[in-house]
Write a structure and sequence with these properties.
The chain is α/β, with parallel strands linked by helices. The chain has two domains: 165 residues, Rossmann fold; 410 residues, L-fucose/L-arabinose isomerase, C-terminal (L-fucose Isomerase, Chain A, domain 3). The protein is 35% helix and 19% strand. The chain is built from 18 helices and 22 strands. Helix 8 packs across helix 9. The model has no long low-confidence stretch (mean pLDDT 97). Converts the aldose L-fucose into the corresponding ketose L-fuculose.
């Protein structure tokens, strides 16, 4: 299995990070003495970001440094023009000294902004940081302040660890904002079984994310399948790969209702065609133009999508579990490649949650129902087993039919521990282990009358993960909830007893959120009881702080999280809305500044 080289499969250049070295503009001794130090700060930041960050598709993150230091409005304007030409989507201003705040600041209202004011005693970088932050806030242009904890000497060109952490957190979130802008969410179908998240809100995507919503009726899949609007050579190659790598498991349907071998084989063929068609609808396929389908070859420039499936499709045709699972994974018959973000049941809000996690981590995501809270007493009553360790306070059963990426098996590793990694770090052996850990089961016909194939695996324990979910609330708008925690493993016999009380053909993640002892994180039960919807998106790593920074940029308040206060990084203006009550301040600031795109 080859690892594919990075490529941009969507329309539009990858956004760059602009570095703005600002300076005291007084010539005759002051400016001249600061030129090298200021430009050295800019180069150091550019090196840090380009060496530590990549885009979600594996392409390198490029930094653009202003041609000169910025001492006044003329140089600020020249820099803004250069940034427009170069496609800059994120702005970081750096300085070791006093500068003229409103004359040197970045005035673009749509670009996320940060300022690093050097903590040194020779010149007042911190004074400029405070002054320009005040100017941003007065003009309604929120900015992230970066100020090192410890004083540095003027000749120190290193970037302290605390400053590095904030620069990288800001850049990751800022690039996520820039990468969403101008892209599409593709709704393949409409509302699934009355699920509110699949009532796709165009205004939310446009005003908060800068994305458009594209809608395609599911009959388009039937048209393309019946008329052969897919690459027939790739279809044969994909089907052969599936037969070799997708191991069938037990058919849990009653014997008298099980489909025949021929029907199951036909469901495999249809499922593979559905995956090809969904991908082509999202990002296009030049091969279709060669086959005479120029319009279909274009795609919808979709960074994320959702497939309705239930019930109109699944009552008659094979379910979408295969297309969702394989597209969400970091590998298929074409090798190891970036995952596609596809939400089951067209739950666009969980699709956005998955997209946020993907853009921040570059890794695949797990889509799941937040299905059951198992208390220690309930587990012991049903299985005789006493939960211990991280699971001692109870566990959440995360499970859904198809869209959990096979990366969610945890069969990849970092430093010998289970992980989910960016695709370019995944080895062919790890991809093979993910496939080996997964079985494919005939869809339960009571759910999926048209048949199909569902995945089954069990996520390995001891992985740090973050579950999040975006919700829409009338009168409030979008609001985010975040729960950092860990996956846990249960003894085989205990897992089997609990798992088979629900649908045993679906992948399971046993999740324990980090408990704080208060509020919605008083205990594991309370997390479940306060979760705002039936679905959640699970990312590898404790990325709650990154999600909070991203939401602040988009003006989406976070109403529930368990991220330690010292890790939270929001624009400086948020303090003015209630420094002693940061969660309430977040709501007030987001309401005050309004959606990023108006």
């Amino acid at each position: 299995m080859v690892v594919n080289p990075p490529q941009n499969r969507l329309i539009g250049e990858m956004p760059k990070i602009g570095i703005r070295p600002t300076i005291d503009g007084r010539l005759g001794g002051v400016r001249e003495s600061l030129e090298e130090q200021t430009m050295a700060m800019a180069r150091a930041v550019a090196n840090l970001l380009s060496e530590n960050l990549r885009h979600y598709n594996g392409l390198p993150v490029e930094c653009v440094i202003a041609d000169t230091t910025i001492g006044g409005v003329a140089e600020a304007a020249r820099t803004a023009e250069k940034f427009r030409r170069e496609g800059v989507g994120v702005s970081i201003t750096v300085t070791p000294c006093w500068c003229y705040g409103s004359e040197t600041m970045d005035m673009d209202p749509l670009i996320p902004k940060a300022v690093w004011g050097f903590n040194g005693t020779e010149r007042p970088g911190a004074v400029y940081l405070a002054a320009v932050s005040a100017a941003h806030n007065q003009k309604g242009l929120p900015v992230f302040n970066i100020y090192g904890r410890d004083v540095q000497d003027a000749g120190d060109t290193s970037i302290p660890e605390d400053v590095q952490e904030k620069l990288l957190r800001f850049a990751r979130a800022g690039l996520a904002v820039a990468n969403m802008r101008g892209k599409s969410y593709l709704a393949m179908g409409g509302v699934s079984m009355g699920i509110a998240g699949s009532i796709v809100d165009h205004a939310f995507f446009e005003r908060y994310l800068g994305m458009r919503v594209e809608t395609v009726d599911m009959v388009e899949f039937v048209r393309r399948m019946e008329r052969g609007i897919y690459d027939p050579e790739e279809f044969q190659r994909a089907l052969a790969w599936v037969k070799e790598n997708c191991r069938e498991g037990k058919d849990y349907n009653p014997p008298e209702k099980q489909q025949s071998r021929a029907e199951k084989d036909e469901a495999w063929a249809t499922s593979v065609k559905m995956a090809l068609i969904a991908r082509d609808l999202m990002v296009g396929n030049p091969r279709l133009a060669e086959l005479g389908y120029g319009e279909e070859a274009l795609g919808h420039n979709a960074l994320a999508a959702g497939f309705q499936g239930q019930r109109q499709w699944t009552d008659h045709l094979p379910n979408g579990d295969f297309l969702e699972a394989i597209l969400n994974s970091s590998f298929d018959w074409n090798g190891i490649r970036p995952p596609y973000i596809v939400a089951t049941e067209n739950d666009a809000l969980n699709g956005v949650s998955m997209l946020f996690g993907h853009l921040l981590t570059n890794a695949a995501q797990v889509f799941a129902d937040v299905r059951t809270y198992w208390s220690p007493a309930s587990v012991k009553r049903v299985t005789g087993y006493e939960l211990t360790g991280r699971a001692a306070g109870g566990i959440l059963h995360l499970i859904n039919s198809g869209p959990a990426a096979l990366d969610g098996t945890g069969e990849q590793s970092i430093d010998g521990k289970p992980a989910m990694k960016p695709y370019w770090e995944i080895t062919p052996e790890e991809a093979g282990k993910c496939l080996d850990a997964t079985t494919w089961h005939a869809g339960m016909l009571e759910y999926f009358r048209g048949g199909g194939w569902s995945t089954r695996f069990r996520t390995r324990g001891d992985m740090p993960v973050t579950m999040c979910r975006l919700n829409l609330v009338q009168g409030l708008g979008p609001a985010m909830q975040i729960a950092e925690g860990w996956t846990v493993e249960l003894p085989d016999e205990v897992h089997t007893i609990l798992d088979e009380r629900t649908n045993p053909t679906w992948p399971t993640t046993w999740f324990v959120p980090n408990i704080t002892g208060s509020g919605p994180f008083r205990d594991v039960y309370t997390v479940m009881n306060n979760w705002g919807a039936n679905h959640g998106a699970i990312s590898y790593g404790h990325i709650g702080a990154d999600l909070i920074s991203l939401c602040a940029m988009l003006r989406i308040p976070v109403y529930m999280h368990n991220v330690p206060e010292e890790r939270i990084f929001r624009p400086s203006a948020w303090t003015a809305f209630g420094a002693n009550e940061p969660m309430g301040a977040d709501f007030r600031a987001c309401a005050n500044f309004g959606p990023l795109y108006g």
